[in-house]
Amino acid sequence: MTQAPEQHRTEQQRWGLMINRPPDIGHHTKPWPPPPPPPPPPPSHQTRAMVVVRRIYCSCTTEQGHDEVYYLFGGVNGAGKEVSHRGPDPYQSADADNATAWDMNDGGAEQNRSLNATIYDEGLAPGQTATFACGFYESDSQDYGSTVAAAGKLAEGVGTVLKQPLAVAAGKVLEWVGSLIPKNQDDFLGAFSLRLANNGQVKLTEVAAGTYARVIRQDLAHNTFSLSLKHDDGDYVVDIQVAGR
Ligand SMILES: [Ca+2]
Ligand SMILES: [Ca+2]
Fold first, then answer.
1. What is the pLDDT of residues 15-66, one digit of tens each?
2. Contacts 24+ apart (CB under 8 A), 37-46
């Protein structure tokens, strides 16, 4: 009965000596390595691009009284397809000419309009780019169908100059519209072109002013720019923002 505990103690002491002896220079004496940090979350890729007309300011209308401002938008989207349309529509706050134009004036409530109108909203996958031209007009009753067809000409035209500097597209808008909107009909206010890219986040990579337009402010870091449009006695400033989601 007394042998076993002694043997047990002896065994404990023996192990105790082993445990308490100076550490070996070996891997088992190093502290356990900390766990690796968790992997970073996957980047949140945006897949749609939007072009938003934030505000239009009218310093001078094309003639006495209200102006009815509309736009033609066309180009080549991220999938390489020609797309175009004419706006605004009621969802873009169109409130003149049976909701096909913005009611503008150089005084009163229609002078400075915060529209926040999304004039383009389409898929743009990571790695894709898209190029568009846009012309602003003031309606003096040119038929609607011709203006839609004119927007289509912008898409075709942009497709032919994709490899050229962006300013070429902006400078050719009037040429592409051609006789669809005669010069003695609706007033041409000015045009611009822009290029979008998706590197995970949608970016405005370039903007160029065309005929009768001037880029008066540009902030590519925040995807915004402002245009001055001056023609046919009209004098406008348009604030535009590119956004992704
Ligand atoms: Ca006019
Ligand atoms: Ca008019």
1. 555 555 555 555 556 677 888 888 876 667 999 999 999 999 999 999 999 9
2. 43/200, 45/126, 45/198, 45/200, 46/124, 46/126, 46/198, 46/200, 46/201, 46/202, 46/244, 46/245
DSSP SS3 for 181: coil
Ligand nearest to the CA of 233: 1
**Listed range (15-19, 146-150, 165-169) with the worst mean pLDDT:** 15-19
Distance CA 133, CA 67 (A): 22
Point out which residues pair with 104 in neighbouring strands: 67
Contact call for residues 135 and 177 (beta carbons, < 8 A): yes
Residues with CB under 5 A from ligand 1 (ion): 62-63, 138, 140, 187
In the block, tokens 């913005």 appear at 102
Q: What's the pTM value of the predicted model, to 2 decimals?
A: 0.82
Residue 132 has pLDDT above 80, yes or no: yes
**Tell me, what's the pLDDT at 175?**
97
CA distances, 114 to each of 52, 53, 79, 104 (Å): 11, 8, 31, 12
Structural Rg of the chain based on CA atoms: 32
Nearest ligand (C-alpha, residue 189): 1
Burial of 164 (0-12, 13-18, 19+ CB in 10 A): exposed
DSSP state of 37: P
Distance from the alpha carbon of residue 184 to the mean position of ligand 1, in angstroms: 10
Ligand 1 centre distance from Cα of residue 52 (Å):
24
For residue 194, give the 3-state DSSP assignment: strand
Closest-CA residue to 138 (of 211, 241, 236, 240)? 236
